[in-house]
Design a protein that fits this description.
Chain lengths: 252, 156
């Protein structure tokens, strides 16, 4: 609104809906984050730190403390900025989102939710209620890295990845997502698939990084050309996968 | 128009506000608390930072109507009186932490809460906490020194 991108005739303040704020850490394998949960609350939430290490690592990169004190997870995901960290993370983790309207509710997979730049699968009469994310499983590691011009700026490119190891220390499953690498958050399917069943070694990681570079379609800007963004995506993918692999080996 | 009751620096105000009136403009034009500065009006510069229910926020990204029943602190509420500045203000003065002073109110309000939550910060933490406040004059060096000095004095 401050950019005059939208000039709504009617504006509803949903801030008083306290029941939509907070993290619901049930006994199961999934954790639910209410739409009105502020970044700052997530940053200070022990369950998030324990079960959603990818988010915990990304939060300090999102804007500044004063913005994180007010900004909400629901507002972030519904806004769906392609350069934003959260959509890429929710996509990488394979989360799902609950939408509600006067007609009823439905769950939308992250892969279907993010349609394009500032565009989601939400209908005009629907509101985002919460997002459900899988907790980090045993023998897994996650890593988020981004490059921005200054602390708190939107990422020039950001990479989120998770690695889960099998009993032999090989990669059972890898997931890789990027922000500011296309029209919306990008899930690097081929790169992730290329690692399955293999060791997480130097060569495998370099191969996956190459695939990531071919799977993304960054837009370029005055701050960074497409070529530079692609280069960064490769470098950050290698670093983040290496780190996630190390963390997975270190976890019980 | 919305009727609101909001507490600013301990004083309760009852006002009628226009739907689209920004909190920053409400503070400056309606309450005549012009210490809160406005630089960019889209959340980037930090000049308009005020403390809302204990947390530093951008007053240019909120509507006055949203403050009904809430508590706000602005730079005017920091000093006890003319001769007794808040330790942060005194330290900014002692360390030459300001030149034009445009960024200063936002920095003070951000640092007040930061030091309450982090009484013994290292330099990296101070710089991280300052990252949401742009200063075009000082180069930040003296602001960092001032925050260190204030922290030291406030611990005593
Ligand atoms: C200086 C600055 C730097 C920033 N840097 C970053 C950054 O690095 N990374 C990043 O990701 N973001 C960044 N942001 C954006 C910030 O994260 C916002 O907090 C985020 O866009 C959401 O804001 P909000 O929760 O206040 O939602 P709003 O701004 O209130 O809403 C955003 C949109 O979503 C809609 N909406 C909100 N809630 C819901 C809901 N529950 N259901 C349906 N629709 C809803 C609104 O109608 C609106 O269209 C930055 C912002 C600023 C000002
Ligand atoms: S005027 Fe509010 S952040 Fe710049
Ligand atoms: S003192 Fe001039 S902008 Fe900071």
């Amino acid at each position: 609104m401050n950019f005059r991108l939208t000039q709504p005739a009617i504006l509803i303040d949903i801030n008083p809906l306290n029941e939509l704020a907070g993290v619901n850490n049930g006994a199961g394998e999934r954790l639910r984050v209410g739409a009105l949960t502020r970044y700052r609350n997530l940053e200070r939430d022990p369950a998030t730190a324990q079960h959603l290490p990818l988010i915990a690592e990304a939060l300090p990169h999102i804007a500044h403390p004063q913005i994180r004190n007010r900004g909400t997870i629901g507002g972030n995901l519904a806004h769906a900025d392609p350069a934003s960290e959260m959509p890429a993370i929710v996509l990488t983790l394979g989360g799902r989102l609950r939408a509600q309207s006067a007609k009823g509710e439905r769950w939308i997979d992250a892969a279907d939710f993010f349609v394009g730049a500032l565009t989601t699968a939400l209908e005009p009469d629907e509101m985002l209620m919460e997002v459900e994310l899988p907790k980090a499983p045993p023998r897994s590691g996650a890593c988020f890295m981004e490059m921005s011009r200054r602390r708190g700026d939107f990422a020039i490119i950001g990479v989120a990845c998770t690695v889960r190891l099998d009993d032999h220390g090989r990669c059972a499953e890898a997931r890789i997502g990027l922000c500011n690498a296309g029209d919306g958050p990008v899930f690097a399917t081929q790169a992730a698939r290329s690692l399955a069943g293999r060791a997480i070694g130097k060569n495998e990681i370099a191969e996956a990084a190459k695939l990531v570079q071919s799977e993304i379609d960054p837009g370029g800007s005055i701050h960074a050309s497409k070529e530079f963004q692609r280069h960064l995506a490769g470098v950050l993918t290698m670093r983040a996968l290496t780190k996630a692999g190390e963390r997975a080996r270190g976890s019980a | 128009m919305h009727p609101i009751t909001v507490t600013v620096n301990g004083t309760k105000y009852e006002r009628q506000v226009e739907d689209r009136l920004l909190l920053s403009d409400f503070l400056r034009h309606d309450l005549l608390l012009a210490g809160t500065h406005v630089g960019c009006e889209h959340g980037v510069c930090g000049a308009c930072t005020v403390i809302f229910d204990g947390a530093p926020v951008r007053s240019c990204l909120m509507f006055a109507a949203q403050t009904d029943g809430h508590r706000i602190e602005t730079v005017e509420g920091l000093a006890v009186d003319r001769d007794h500045l808040h330790p942060l203000q005194q330290a900014m003065r002692d360390c030459h932490g300001l030149q034009c002073g445009y960024c200063t109110p936002g920095i003070l309000m951000t640092m007040k809460v930061f030091l309450e939550e982090t009484p013994n910060p290292d330099e990296a933490q101070i710089r991280e906490a300052l990252s949401g406040n742009l200063c075009r004059c000082t180069g930040y060096q003296h602001i960092v020194e001032a925050v260190k000095l204030a922290a030291e004095r406030m611990r005593k």
